[in-house]
Amino acid sequence: MDNITASEVAGLGVGTLLLCATIAAPKIDAFFSSSQRSALGMCRRCGNLRRLACSRCKGTGSVKEGGILRLGSNLMDDLYENLGYQSKVKQISCVKCQARGYFSCPECSKQ
Ligand SMILES: [Zn+2]
Ligand SMILES: [Zn+2]
Known about the structure:
This protein is 46% helix and 11% strand. The protein is mainly alpha-helical.
């Protein structure tokens, strides 16, 4: 390890710092936006909408039968629908949100 120079060590340190900054940046961003919301007296989770869109059905309340496992063919179905073809895939109610498409915000309902 004697042949590593001081500048190489410094370069390694800077590289590590840059890497850390790159990884941490989205988290810092999320931290600031949530602290801004609470500074404005808004809910940190929903921004005072009092509801959170269902992650499974993307707020639509229904999902294509087969769900996430059929993601690839869902893309094809969407394409056909966009082209005006009738989709063969049945829409079923989203079980995660009971077809409402959203949940009440747990932060807001605490108050
Ligand atoms: Zn849902
Ligand atoms: Zn909320």
